[in-house]
Amino acid sequence: MRHVYTLALHLYAFAVELSSFFHRKARMTRVGQWHTNGILRKKIDRNARYIWFHAASLGEFEQGRPLMEAIRKRYPDYKILLTFFSPSGYEVRKNYDGADVICYLPFDTPYKVRKFLHLANPAVAVFIKYEFWLNYLTELKKRKIPTYLVSGIFRREQLFFKWYGSWYRKALTCFERLFVQDEASRSLLAEFGITNVQVCGDTRFDRVLAVQRQARELPAVKEFAGDGTSLILVAGSSWPEDESILIPYFNTHPEVKLIIAPHEIPREHLLYIESLLHRPSIRLSEANDQSVSGKDCLIIDSFGLLSSIYRYGDVAYVGGGFGKGIHNTLEAAVYGIPVLFGPRYQKFREAHELIACGGGFSLQDEAAFITRMDEFIRKPAQRAETGRIVGDYVQRNSGVTDCILREMSL
């Protein structure tokens, strides 16, 4: 089956090559991988010891970031090699100063694997959450390079645990240790004889706490939020399906002010949002030239600010739950405010736990949103207590990076 897997990788690589002529993301992947060997030859210091971190994309990078930064601080003799598979991760973080070398990861074919490892020559390898490249893992084990999985999470429906998945399950035996998010993952792996597992949790808790400590002061947003006389609803990463629920409620409730940060901000989408609003609004980009006084809705028309903006909210609504799935709930929860989201949250452990502890609320439809918001308006003390529960939840699950570092052989 490993030969079939490798053949499938060759076919996938060929498909990317063909599609690169008319598909921008495929072209970026192809060109990025072409440059990998050159980057490694030029930048790898043969006298240094490297810890190689691999993140599929931007989300996995953020999960691995607390561990990278802790290693850089505590073990300065090591250098960091960071690889991405997705252009959406590489293009955003290719200048990240927490790594010494950053490049794309070549496809998981035997020749490319051997070439990459020869040039990179890592002393330790760390894969983040879902990355299980069979040929890379097998070759790392063959070369006796300690390899770790961090923030892993396993579900019974994954290929490893199917009756026909035993060949792929061998990938899991290549890890020196698997650091998983929950006891359910540990128990599932134990059923299949994989016991070099430790429950440490999710490094994203450490990451959001670090972001909170470094949150930017945004004077225009602070001025808009005002003196606490209005309930501030922050809607982060919203999609049209979310906005069709949020904005009608906002229009008919003058006691609520809305800060909305759409997931996508092309001109057409911003105009769509403004067409739905029946109360005074302003875009953040306009707030430098105009006063936010008298405005009831602040539209965030730039990226990179949401993690700081949640600090000004009394209630957070995290978008995506009426589409493919919710966005980052922890980014809001770290500020100790109630977190609302749509019905598609099943793949997100932290959403389940927020619901279980009483700090998060999944809304099935507009009626459920209205009911929950009305209650938050009527019962501010209850809303504040809910926020305290959320904040305690985040603090209780922090310290994951230290847990992992205690067990890594560095």
Task: Walk me through the structure.
With about 400 residues, this protein is an alpha/beta fold. The protein has 18 helices and 14 strands. A seven-stranded parallel beta sheet has the order 3-2-1-4-5-6-7, sandwiched between helices. Helix 3 crosses helix 9 (about 205-215).
Cα(first) to Cα(last) distance is 34 Å
Overall form: globular
Number of strands: 14
Pick out the low-confidence regions: none
- Estimated structural class: alpha/beta
Main-sheet strand order equals: 3-2-1-4-5-6-7
Q: State mean pLDDT (0 to 100 scale).
A: 94
Query: DSSP helix count?
Result: 18
Task: Tell me what portion of residues adopts beta-strand conformation.
Answer: 15-25%
Largest sheet entry: 7 strands, parallel
Helix content: 40-55%
Tell me the radius of gyration.
Answer: 23 Å
Q: Which key terms come to mind for this protein?
A:
410 residues; alpha/beta; 7-stranded parallel beta sheet; globular; 18 helices; 16% strand
Write a brief structural summary.
The protein has 410 residues and is of the alpha/beta class. It has helices at residues 2-19, 24-43, 58-74, 87-93, 110-120, 134-142, 166-169, 183-191, 204-213, 219-225, 240-251, 267-276, 306-309, 330-333, 349-357, 366-378, 380-396, 400-407, and strands at 49-55, 78-84, 101-104, 124-128, 147-152, 177-180, 197-199, 231-238, 256-262, 281-283, 297-299, 315-318, 339-341, 360-362.
